Every structure is written in C-alpha cells, then in structure tokens.
Amino acid sequence: MSLTEIAEVVGGRLADVLDPEARVTQPAVFDSREAQPGSLFVALKGERVDGHAYAESAHNKGAVVALVTHPVGVPAIVVENVLDAFGKLAHDLLTGPIAGARVVAITGSAGKTSTKDLVGQVLPGTVVATPQSFNNEIGLPLTVTLADTGTDHLVLEMGARHIGDIRELTRIAPPDISVVTNVGTAHIGEFGGRDNIAEAKGEIVEALSPNGLAVLNADDDYAQPMAERSGGRVVTYGLGENATIRATDITTDAQGRPSYTLTTPEGTARVQLQFVGGVQVHNSLAAAAVGREAGLDTTEIAARLSRALPRSKWRMETETRADNVTIVNDAYNANPNSMRHSLDALASMTRGVGQRAVAVLGRMNELGTDSRTAHEGIGRYAAGKSLDRIILVGGEEAQWMLTGVRSAGGKAEWMPDQEAALDLLHSTLRPGDVVLVKASRGVELQQLASALLQPTSVGPDA
C-alpha cells in the first residue's frame, strides 16, 4: 500500500514525507532492530520505552514510514492512537488486499500455541500463523501484515485477560473458523472465575458468520456449551462418542509422544504425533477438524499430523544431552491445567532400569485468591505421579507446593532460586534421567532449562 492509502485507512496525516506514493511492501515491526527496506515501523509507547525515540533508527534500516502520534523527523503517518490505527490497518488488509485468506482464530486457557502450530502444518496451501505468542492487540495485527495476496490461510492465536478482549480482536480479524481448546484457570486472578473466562473465550465463536465454523472441545464442560453462542456451524472433537472428530486406541511411546486412531465421519487413520504429552491428542484433534473443513480427507489429515513438528520454544521442548539426560523445557507459562498435563507427560515417559523422572516446578502466576489452593493442589498432584524426584523452586508459592506434596505423603526438595536448583541438579543427575522444567514466565526457569542443556559432567546419585 502507498503511504497515502495507509493514511486514508487509519485516519492519519503525512509528516516529513517526500514521496506520498512510496509503498510499504514488507511486514510491520515494532522493534526498530527488525526493520528492513519496505517495512512499516509501529511506534508504540510502553511503560519503559517509547517507540517514537527509535523511529529514526528504523528509518535508517529501511522502514518506509513510521506510525506515530507526533512528527519524529522521518517519514511518518501521524494518528491520534497508534494501536487503534494499527488495528484499522490490519482490518483493511483483511477486507482488501488479503481478503482471500481464510482466517482461523484459536483461543483457550491452555494449548493455544501448540494447536496453532499443528493447524499451521495441517492446512494445505500457503499458511501464515502467529509467531511466538503474538496473540494480543499488538501481535495480532502484526501477524496480519505477515500475510500477502498469496496467503491461503491466516492462523491467529487470540488471548485475553478481560471480557471483551477477544471481541476486539475478532473485529480486527473476523474469523472464518473459530477454535476453542478449553476453559481452564489461566489468568483467573484477572477474570475472577471460570464462568468469566468462558464468557471471554466464547466471544470467538460469537464472531462467526452463518457460513463460519466453530471447533469446540466436546470434553470440556465450559467449551462444549459454546455451541449455543456460535454464529455459524459447529464441529466438536474429543475422546467420547459424542464428538464429531475422535481419538481412540491411544498409546504413548518412550518419549511421551502419543499415537491414536483418528476417527471422522468419513473414515479412520492412524496418527503418530511428534509432540510430547497426552494433551496433544486434543490439540491435534482440533487441527484435524480445521483440516477437514479445508477439504482434506482423513488419511491426509493423519499423515500431516504425523509429520507436524513442534515450532514454539519452551513448550514441552525436549532435548537429550550427550550424557543421555533428557531435558523437557515447558517453562514458557503455567497454570493448574497445564501443570497437570506436563506432569502427566513426564510420568508417561518410559524409564528403564536406573532412569528417573525429575520434576522441577516454579510458581504459577495470575491465580489471584486461588493461588495458595492451586499451588498446594499441584503439589498433591505431583506427589501422586510416582515421580522419582520433585524439586520446587522459588518463594512462598513453591513452599505451598511443598505443603501439598507432604500432605499427600510425598517427598520434595525446596530450592530458594534457580542457581541453587541448578547446583543440585548438576551434582545429582545421571544418565537416563528425564527432567521436566515447568513454571510461569518471570520465574526465570527458562534460563534454568537452558543452563541444564549446557555440557556438564553428570554427578553421582544423591
């Protein structure tokens, strides 16, 4: 689009522009270091950094124009609110230049990113999907600018912290297919209860047109009833016979990767997932439902699911060191549901003679008044998984988990910080051990997991 066209769409005015017909030909960026010739720089003002201060840097790297609230000395489009204008631009792209792209919107308390990765690899044609977890009012329009006129499917993760958030995202990018993975307790401290979370997540199906499709988890007591709120058709997925898309005969290999028989109204086929954890069965069934809507037959869907690989960092990211110690890094985020799923996966990973399952757990954020109860509950759950070692890292939340472990008759070790936990692990891990690292962001257990992957000598058993 030309600068004149963009300014008209967003209701802005040009400033310091020499050529109003210069065209933006590359995706938008909000980090000036990622600017390239042809890109649009979005100058966002945060709590610590104001993007307007970096507009010149982005221009020097080739950005054609900056979206700003005041002139910055380089070619710019001046608007009243940068974020609102960016959303308007993304919406215009989806109703104009890239209107041919089918929009698949995905939400849920857990599993959004893995489901997005699976959907992106099942769908035929050219697919653009949300990078990382860019699932809010900043990341979603940025993802839209990654698409072009040749994009067949645009797979968008949609997150929420408040009722109304997803409604605003669907106004920017009206979905053709809406997927709800589950309704759990992520951000329950912000929402105030699961009923409110369900209210927020259901906005994604209310946005569908009569020709749209809602893909709902039949095994989730809060997701399945959203069928009544759908503006379009409904397909369900799950393990029960009432689901349209089902999984039966589920097994798990030594690496914790599930396989199952995929059953659709058109037939059956065997799936062997490359993703770790039983929860991936449901995530892959959601992807199967989307692939079916795109016209793929059951055999092809199963083949694509079996080839799909994890694409997102720190989500059951599994790597085996040279000394045969396996590190499972699931430290991107955590809530009670995802904690249980990760512990289930660890327990399912076959252990031979002398091998041990080690859980390293940190706090779960944004649980509000339920935080202590939830952490103690996870401690009790971990104690019941027959794990060989439980290491709890951090402050009072880790202490609450320790209380839960002990109340269930289990044993665990408390470490005040990741440095102490790393020292303990370095001195006690031995070949064959499988180590799960799980916590919410901000606990720095991502760094712990990364440090565990560095070459080291395996210590004796403690």
Rg, rounded, reads 23 Å
**Annotation field: number of helices:** 16
- Fraction of residues in H or I helices: 25-40%
Instruction: Note the beta-strand portion.
Output: 15-25%
Total DSSP E strands: 20
Please describe the biggest sheet, giving its number of strands, its sense, and whether it closes into a barrel. 9 strands, mixed
Enumerate the strands of the largest sheet in spatial order, edge to edge or round the barrel.
7-8-6-9-10-11-12-13-14
User: Would you tell me the structural class of the helices and strands?
Assistant: alpha/beta
Intertermini distance:
64 Å
Report on this model:
The chain is built from 16 helices and 20 strands. With 462 residues, the protein is of the alpha/beta class. The strands form 3 sheets. Strands 7-8-6-9-10-11-12-13-14 form a 9-stranded mixed β-sheet. The chain has a 6-stranded mixed β-sheet with strand order 15-16-20-17-18-19, sandwiched between helices. A 5-stranded mixed β-sheet has the order 1-5-4-3-2. Helix 5 (139-144) links the parallel strand 7 and strand 8 (153-157). Helix 15 runs parallel beside helix 16 (445-452). The longest helix has 15 residues, at 279-293. The radius of gyration is 23 Å and the shape is globular.
